[in-house]
Amino acid sequence: MPSSVQKFALSGSGIRRGCAVIAAAVACVILLGEASRANWLTDALRGTSSKPDKSDAPAASTKRAAAPKRAEAAKHVATPKPTNVKLAALGPLNPSALKLATAACEPAKFRIVLDVGHTPESEGATSSRNVPEFAFNLRLAQRVEEKLKAEGFAETRLLVTEGKARPSLARRVATANDFQAKLFLSIHHDSVPNKFLEEWEVDGKKSHYSDRFGGYSVFVSTRNPEFKTSLVFAELVAKEMKASGLKYADQYSLPVMGRYQHPLLNKETGVYSYDKLVVLRTSRMPAVLLEAGSIINRDEELKMDSSERRDVISSAVAAAVKKFCGAPEPFLGPP
């Protein structure tokens, strides 16, 4: 029989062997943990995330399943909404992201869609002299088309859509996308919220007006897949309009406009973001909406109805398109 000393030695040997096993197991756990963290870091650097296969989902613990949900929820809470974007905060506009024809642009092949806002059945706003907005939009769009084609942009297409207003929106976008346009410009004329309207008579008929506001405005959507490129063209249009002596409508930046208030991206030129406009948000090409001027303002309506004003605006748009097609400098907005 072994002595008590021998028994102790054997027990100690067993303990050492047990400790060695435990230490090895702990080391394995640590190594696995480090490997997992290393994989996560690699995925993070690559901009990807590891997701368990659906067949493994039942084996995952409740805690592991809840963690990604908490992370996803935190991500949504932490991500700011894009509607309050400020132009100066965008940083330099990366030329590779613009996807313009730039130096390779051939005006004769550069496809442009001129969208006439509203339809003959849904005519939009009514002017202070009871003329439907659609009539103003059509006349100006036709003049812009003539000007662009005279400047060599032979692939300019005038888009007149029929039907009710809301169903026509998807058709406009589908037509522009099918045409594979490089640029989409929707032409409108402005009014005001009903709370600003006043009554008067025109040729014995009751009408409404508001002389409080006037001017042009240019809109883009931050949700457009070509937002930064849209912004470049919007800036060009707005600068050309301003250089022609026209004033932009600053009321959209004021709280008094209520739900019609929009983020002003550039206070120098009058470029706004408006993410709810279907034609801007869902077009696959750079898209801009131009409110050429106010037709509910009595004095401005007379100007908007003149061939002289249509010539000024069409020349401004044509100049903007030419610069857009010819590698415009990026705009950073006011400091």
Describe this structure in words.
The chain is of the alpha/beta class and 335 residues long. It has a domain at 101-325: Aminopeptidase (3-Layer(aba) Sandwich), CATH 3.40.630. The protein is built from 9 helices and 9 strands. It has helices spanning 4-46, 62-78, 95-98, 133-150, 165-179, 227-243, 278-281, 298-304, 307-325, and strands at 112-116, 156-159, 183-190, 198-202, 205-209, 217-220, 264-266, 271-273, 287-294. Strands 2-1-3-9-6-8-7 form a 7-stranded mixed beta sheet, sandwiched between helices. A two-stranded antiparallel sheet has the order 4-5. Strand 7 and strand 8 (271-273) form a beta hairpin. The chain starts with a helix and ends in a 10-residue tail after the last helix. The model is unreliable at 1-103 and 327-332 (pLDDT under 50).
